[in-house]
Specification:
This is DUF3618 domain-containing protein. By secondary structure, the protein is mainly α. Helix content is about 90%, strand content about 0%. The chain has helices at about 5-30, 30-45, 50-75. The longest helix has 26 residues, at about 50-75. The protein is rod-shaped and about 95 Å long.
Length: about 80
């Protein structure tokens, strides 16, 4: 039984709209601004955990030691 051309066109239009909506969602999810904000939120969340605080403290200590070494070597 042959299909009605109008029904076929309606199905094509519905598929096109669905594809357009999917592409819009993908574009929104992969936008640089959204990815940047998501990354910043993840880092802020990590830094509020005990492990994150310890890592930040260790990094601060390492930077301080390197700067002290550079200052000491300048005097020599």
């Amino acid at each position: 039984m042959p299909r009605d051309p109008r029904q076929i066109q309606l199905e094509i239009d519905a598929a096109r709209e669905s594809l357009a909506a999917t592409l819009d969602q993908l574009a929104d999810r992969s936008s640089p601004q959204r990815l940047k904000a998501k990354g910043q939120a993840a880092v802020q969340h990590f830094l509020q955990t005990p492990a994150g605080m310890a890592a930040a403290g260790a990094l601060g200590l390492l930077v301080t030691l390197v700067l002290v070494q550079k200052v000491r070597h300048r005097k020599d």
